Amino acid sequence: MNIVVLLPYKENFSNKNAGAVSIFVNSTNKLSKFKNNINVYGFTEDKVVFNNYTNIKLHKKIFHSTSSQYLNNFIKLINEKKLDILEIHNRPHYIKKLKLINCKKILYFHNDPLKMQGSITKQERQFIYENTDKIIFNSNWSKSRFLINLEQFKNSNNLEIVHQSTSKKKIYFKKKKKIISYIGKLNSSKGYDIFGEAILRILDKYNDWSCIVIGDEPRQKHFFSHKNLNHLGFKTNSFILKKLETVSIAVIPSKWDEPFGRSSMEAASRGCAVIKSNTGGLNETTKHSITLNTITPENIFNKIEYLIKNKKIRTSLQHKAYKNFNLTNKNASIKLDKIRDSLIEKKFYINLNRKKNLKILHITNFNERFNGRLHYNTGKRLNNGLIRNGFNVLNISDRDIISNYKKISDLNGVKTLNNKIISTFNNFNPDIILMGHADNVSLETLDFIKNKKKSLKIGQWFLDPVSRNGPDYKINKNRFLKFNKHLDANFITTDPHSLDFNTVNTFYMPNPSDKAFETLNNYKFNCDNDLFFAMSHGVHRGVLKGGKHDDREKILNLLVKKNKNIKFDLYGFNNKQPIWGDQFISAISNSKMGLNLSRGKPVKYYSSDRIAQLMGNGLLTFIDEKTCFSDFFSKNEIITYKNLNDLNEKINKFKKDDRQRRQIAKNGKDKYLKHFNSDKVSKFIINKILDIDNKEKFIWN
């Protein structure tokens, strides 16, 4: 484990001038179980610094951004190092330059996200969310600010709260003196101007009480003087904590929205009675305090006087604040280590027989925009199988998103799609991404999410023909190979050994049937039609395209011409429009036999997905013997033919031999649904993606 912490530029990581960020980092790191593996980088001019620190050397130049030089020099220092986690503190705009560093990234917000460079706009905050693995806020208030207009991330596991923290030691309340404290910048936003007026009146009226002020302000405009008012200037954190052990009342009168409020938290840790304003995250520093609902000299005076006069209430607040204080460095360090642990990728084990609840992001075209016309598709069949295998499946219908989200800034919708995939990945954190014909997913998107999760597995299924003698060969080949270097496994409805190009980890998958889709039993009935066949010139078009011809039309014309006694039911042919959805199921239910005829020359194992519907619904199915489906099905389960004459003879034979036709059709349906069903095909896909040597054998493997 190698953890690198990058501080904000000018954040002094030293005992002498440490700011709130450095104090938090140093205090929690010392208690971390990873303390020997954490290295802090920053720019500190002091010579005495905390442990495990590397100073980034800078050469200030006119007209050159020192902040850019700071980041560039940091990148050079870590360029050759293997990082597991990079933790970036309080500089959201650093993410844009550091996003390409190959490791997990945590961004800490110590201030209001809406007032910081790089996180002001909704788009900037969404970019941060998508390019980090965890975002840690110092208060619920800070988190709520980040989430303005980003409600979709509200319940994300990527957003965490780790409050600022301090040590907790035994307090001896007998050492408490009549001291009131103000600790912080001496400016009006911190309420020092209002406090000053109130404290002078208190010290005039109660001369046995005194006040200490710790802090400075280079542009100080507020001066208050009294014999019992001690200005101590800027002091180290250890000095402040020691001094608070003697303080009875601590006042934190901030006018601005404090993201958290370290002064209030430290006062509570040392058993002070706290008076604080009701702004920002101050209420999260302690549950036991007096609240300033209005910040005026009169109100502050009244609250302090109330505690001076009521010793019992004062001491009760002191004891409760101390007793219930749990914002300790130890607790914060434990929580941070748990977050780091969650980002460490363990070796990925799975036992499918125990149906571990793997999370799968399935990206394909679910055809929502066609209102059920294309419901019976392979994507949904595989989805059903994945779910029945016990997997947690989340779908992204890529082409629906592209169709529905086109706009001037994203004319083809591809940018929106890829942003949605990244956001979904961040929210869902899948173990596997399975893609089907997801051509519009960008390689950059896969690079990005793979870098975020090294154990992520990616697979692709592809149904279109990729034979040199098939249709759209070059286009389909390029589509099929697009994601080659990103894939753990590739699945195709053609014998991979029949391809004339090299592929990576490619396996044959049959077109899956599904018990919820293939529900007909045509072999049981006296159907009106003899032979069914349907084709189209484009599934998404839905109708025949004028002037377009299909090589299958010649075969169909010859069949019809030679077989006047055969009652054909043909669609997508001779100006008869293709049919879809329930109309298709209704039509196919009335045929005894089906012709499985794919575009192009027959190639080993290739078939369109129509075969699952023909055999799965109990039609006696004819297929060219050159597809080699006889490797899977016997002559008692499917009918293969050598040529057109052979096909003619066999169609006529089984029209006459109704008994044998019914038996072969039944056998074919039973075997197809038993071995080529979506449960088995989807399980096979997951096995191969995960490279599992599962004992179960598949007849096509």
What does this structure look like?
The chain is of the alpha/beta class. It has four domains: 3-161, 3-Layer(aba) Sandwich (Rossmann fold), CATH 3.40.50.2000; 173-327, Rossmann fold (3-Layer(aba) Sandwich), CATH 3.40.50; 352-508, Rossmann fold, CATH 3.40.50.2300; 522-676, Rossmann fold (3-Layer(aba) Sandwich), CATH 3.40.50.2000. It contains 22 helices and 24 strands. Strands 3-2-1-4-5-6-7 form a seven-stranded parallel beta sheet. A six-stranded parallel beta sheet has the order 10-9-8-11-12-13. A six-stranded parallel beta sheet has the order 15-14-16-17-18-19, with helices on both faces. Helix 15 (443-452) links the parallel strand 16 (432-436) and strand 17 (457-462). Helix 1 (20-29) packs across helix 11. The longest helix is centred in the C-terminal third of the chain and has 18 residues, at 658-675. The radius of gyration is 36 Å and the shape is elongated. Residues 347-355 have low confidence and may be disordered.
Which helices and strands appear, and what pairs or packs with what?
Blueprint: E1 3-6, H1 20-29, E2 38-42, E3 53-55, H2 66-78, E4 85-89, H3 95-98, E5 104-109, H4 122-130, E6 134-137, H5 140-146, E7 159-161, E8 179-183, H6 192-205, E9 210-214, E10 229-233, H7 237-244, E11 249-252, H8 262-269, E12 273-277, E13 290-292, H9 297-309, H10 311-323, H11 329-343, E14 359-364, H12 378-388, E15 392-397, H13 398-404, H14 414-428, E16 432-436, H15 443-452, E17 457-462, H16 473-481, E18 489-492, E19 506-508, E20 529-534, H17 552-562, E21 568-571, H18 581-588, E22 591-596, H19 610-616, E23 620-624, E24 639-641, H20 644-656, H21 658-675, H22 678-689
Parallel strand pairs: 1-2, 1-4, 2-3, 4-5, 5-6, 6-7, 8-9, 8-11, 9-10, 11-12, 12-13, 14-15, 14-16, 16-17, 17-18, 18-19, 20-21, 20-22, 22-23, 23-24
